[in-house]
Amino acid sequence: MQLSEQELIRREKLEKLRALGINPYPAALYPVNATSASIKSNYEEGKQVIVAGRLMSRRIQGKASFAELQDSSGRIQVYFNRDEICTGEDKSLYNDVYKKLLDIGDIIGIEGDLFTTQVGEKTIMVKKFTMLSKSLRPLPLPKKDAEGKVYDEFNDPELRYRQRYVDLVVNPKVKETFIKRTKITNSIREFYNDKGYLEVETPILQPIPGGATARPFLTHHNALNIPLYLRIANELYLKRLIVGGFDGVYEFSKDFRNEGMDRTHNPEFTVMELYVAYKDYNWMMDTTEKLLEKIAMDANGTTKVTVGKHEIEFKAPYARVPILEAIKIHTGIDVAGMPEDELRETAKKLGLEVDDTMGVGKLIDEIFGEKCEHHYIQPTFITDYPKEMSPLTKEHRDNPALTERFELMVNGKELANAYSELNDPIDQRERFEEQLKLSEKGDDEAMFIDQDFLRALEYGMPPTSGIGIGIDRLVMLMTNNASIQEVLFFPQMRPEKKPLQLSDNEKVIFDILKSEKKIELDALKNKADLSNKAWDKGVKGITKQQLAKIYKEGDVLFVELIK
């Protein structure tokens, strides 16, 4: 492992601390009795406090120093005075340990008294400090110039997502997002618990990936010697519990879909699903409006939320638009009752990419997604989906070609999906069989037939309404974040590129190629100025690592950097 100069210096300091008998990573409990926030909110001049946190800045002025300590609730100023810390003749704890062996980023404990500086800053007068954890890597802290301009911010998305632990330390707004995420989930729990619904847990590893149309992740259980799937939804298990006699159940579910990644999709995501007996989708729309009003108030103190350039109003009521009407409004085409072949040709005329594996449901979904969805900025219930799009949904009471389903659109994206749940076991079996035909046509997102779920329905499930709300997208809306990666602590990333391991000879050649990009082989050899043996080894090493390629143009050999 190659270490930077700063990392080497910090390791030297680590050894010096140990040589002085100071354990840089002590095991004993540290008796914290206050935080930066509690001190400021309940300030008492002269009060003795014990705090712990990360040293984030300091200004050493001889025998005195002001510094900032950051804990879980914020930052507070601390004042180090040599004679307060070292009351006897030996001043080494301040002169050597504090001034020379502590670094920005170190975690320390402080015992001291509160006082207010002449400029009114609430501060801790340090009486004693304790090393709790030596930081061996320097934090990427932003810097301000004399004009107040900020430089060296830690704002590269890939680095921030890979090193979220650093992101949380140096970017306070990131922490605020995740605190708000917890407020949102707590708000949902409070809303449902007050109604008497039970929070439950259902299997993540499932023998059949049911409850949604999506491509699953496949794994294998060695002891049982069977394939298992990471769940794409928990719907069918929650409905089994309704069959079993619960009136209302909900779950915050980690679901997994083996599909693409973008600003609104991560292969692992969180959904809250709720199922309530003796209700329908109209009741669920009313309930969802009340829930989202409460969430907005709990998270932001208002029902109006700024998302990008839009102000979104979560106060009820929300518009309700049938999906086929929405398509007619935004395309001018009435697709109601249109045969599959004609629908496919219509989609093509609208400029959509379609293929023969797509049935009526997929085609309508594609038309709505591409031509209509982005128009719905304010919360809107898109209702009454065709039966082909909704294999788990009850047939519409007024039109047998439709189902009692809605999707809630906010800011041009789906936030929730809900049904009057299909509880006719014979109808459900026929719908599953239709999905099987789609699978045989090549649709790898079609639903599997879950025989055990059908057996459960045959015992009788009461009329039920269910909903799934995408928690990650909900948090994006409530925190004004445009990317799902901003609201996940640890989003899925591509494997981290390993740093290049180059020999001295390879480095000489590679540095020339970085500036030249493409160069004649003989010219590169002359510029490298290496012995024949060193040159041969260096060029072989560069090409073996696929950093450069050698090829011929006419009679001349060239070397080109591979991007």
Automatic annotation (TrEMBL):
What is its cofactor?
Answer: Mg(2+)
HAMAP family in the cross-refs:
Lys_tRNA_synth_class2
For the protein in the UniProt heading, the enzyme class is ligase
Q: Report the PANTHER family cross-referenced here.
A: LYSINE--TRNA LIGASE, CHLOROPLASTIC_MITOCHONDRIAL (PTHR42918:SF15), LYSYL-TRNA SYNTHETASE (PTHR42918)
Q: Where in the cell is it found?
A: Cytoplasm
Q: What is its EC number?
A: 6.1.1.6
This protein's name: Lysine--tRNA ligase
Q: Which gene encodes it?
A: lysS
- Residues that bind Mg(2+) 1: E407, E414
Instruction: Identify the stretch annotated as signal peptide in this record.
Output: none
Q: What residue stretches are annotated with the Aminoacyl-transfer RNA synthetases class-II family profile domain? A: 181-495
- Subunit-structure text: Homodimer.
- UniProt-listed InterPro entries: Aa-tRNA-synt_II, aa-tRNA-synth_II, aa-tRNA-synth_II/BPL/LPL, Lys-tRNA-ligase_II, Lys-tRNA-ligase_II_N, Lys-tRNA-synth_II_C, NA-bd_OB-fold, NA-bd_OB_tRNA
The record's remark on the cofactor is: Binds 3 Mg(2+) ions per subunit.
